[in-house]
Amino acid sequence: MTKGFVAKNCIEAISPYAAGKPIEETAREYGLEVDKIVKLASNENPLGMPQSALKAALAAAASGNRYPDGNARLFRQAVARHHNLSEDWVIAGNGSDEILELAARLVLAPGLRCVYSQYSFSVYELSAQENGAQCVEVPAKDFAVDLEAMLAAVDCDTRLVFITNPNNPTGFALSKNEVEDFMTKVPETCLVVFDEAYCDFLPPELRFDSVELVRRYPNMMVTRTFSKAYGLAGLRAGYGIAHPEMIEMLNRIRPPFNMNLMAQAAAAACLEDQAFVSRVYEVNRKGLEMLESFFKERGIRFLKSCANFILVQTGPRTAELYTELLKRGVIVRPVKSYGLPDWMRISVGTEEELKRFFAAYDESAKALG
Ligand SMILES: Cc1ncc(COP(=O)(O)O)c(C=O)c1O
Q: How far is the CA of 29 from the centre of ligand 1 (A)?
């Protein structure tokens, strides 16, 4: 039957991105009140956004009849200051997703390859697929990204590698030495996108200056988001850092006005509020400890996380458990689409939210017998 158009073959093969279940949908389906629902499904910030960001976003909204600055200059200058760079090293994105997609569009085409690890962010596969490139998923080693195996998978047709630190959904972190070693060995013709969406949750001893690596390796790009530690997921703000030559090429394919007015203003304001990020880090660290103790006490396996979520082996009845939790107003993230049908990912919430989750979990487990 004709659909009235002919989609590219590579797009026919794509399964759409599976997002965390929205609060409103859950309320509708289970007859619950919206404000009673606890969402621990999308690694959002349970503390909201800094007051300065909210104020800046609302002030910007008043000029919503005008287009935003298409070059997001003030935002990019704020990012550049934050990293001690000049603004021509920065590209602004409608979330860091957009930067990942732009990187793929820049270098991938049919006949070329994109390498990423098993159990990594699904947008990597999607962005390679939509460009008709071959997806090469490299098996993880005990759930951790295996950089040696990824390097071995890179050949002369490999134009893009995605590395996440810390990784979603496993929460594992890489060391600077491992990443640097990878960069010294990977061919210069291969763009390495180092996705640091969760880097603000890394414990201090595992942090390192990735931008310093970008300065030394023109085939490397770092991506960051404001959706996690800065609490701007709904506004959509992210950026990429790379050598100006790469940024200039990316700007050729970047949609005009890709970062909206409110996102530009709020994200620039956030960067000035590092005290907020420190508080987010502390709340997250305590939340992770609460989650670890809860699952330890019940003898349930989990992976030690360096991010704002934890991956838990909830077993063969994970899908039923997920539904039982929904009935009790708690949304978590089953990770079957990541090839982990027996696991679920739980985002760190506030202490109150976690207590609600713990009660709902025990009741759900009991209901399942
Ligand atoms: C590893 C990773 N990278 C990038 C993103 C994209 O974030 P955003 O587009 O909200 O900036 C996410 C979102 O969940 C993620 O988990």
A: 27
Count CA atoms within 13 Å of residue 123 on its CB side. Answer: 20
Ligand 1 site, residue 164, Cβ cutoff 6 A: yes
- How many helices (H) and strands (E) the chain has is answered by 14, 12
120 lines ligand 1 (CB under 6 A): no
Average of per-residue pLDDT across 191-219: 98
The DSSP 8-state label assigned to residue 167 in this structure reads -
CATH of domain 51-272: 3.40.640.10
pLDDT single digits (tens) 120-151: 999 999 999 999 999 999 999 999 999 999 99
Q: What is the DSSP letter of 65?
A: T
Q: Ligand 1 centre from 92 Cα, in Å?
A: 14
Q: State the Cα–Cα distance between residues 323 and 344, nearest whole angstrom.
A: 12
pLDDT band at residue 205 using 50, 70 and 90 as cut-offs? very high
Q: Which residues contact 146 (CB under 8 A, 6 or more apart)?
A: 117, 138, 139, 140
Whether the pLDDT of residue 7 is over 90: the answer is: no
Q: What CATH number has the domain spanning 11-40+275-368?
A: 3.90.1150.10
Which atom of ligand 1 lies nearest, measured to the CA of 228? 10
- Is the CB of residue 165 below 6 angstroms from any atom belonging to ligand 1? no
Ligand 1 center–CA 100 separation, angstroms: 9
51-272 matches 11-40+275-368 in CATH topology:
no
Report CA Rg, the chain.
21
Instruction: Output the pLDDT for position 17.
Output: 83
What are the tens digits of pLDDT across the range 286-335? 999 999 999 999 999 999 999 999 999 999 999 999 999 999 999 999 99
Domains in the chain: boundaries? 11-40+275-368, 51-272
Q: Which residue has the tokens 């790469």?
A: 246
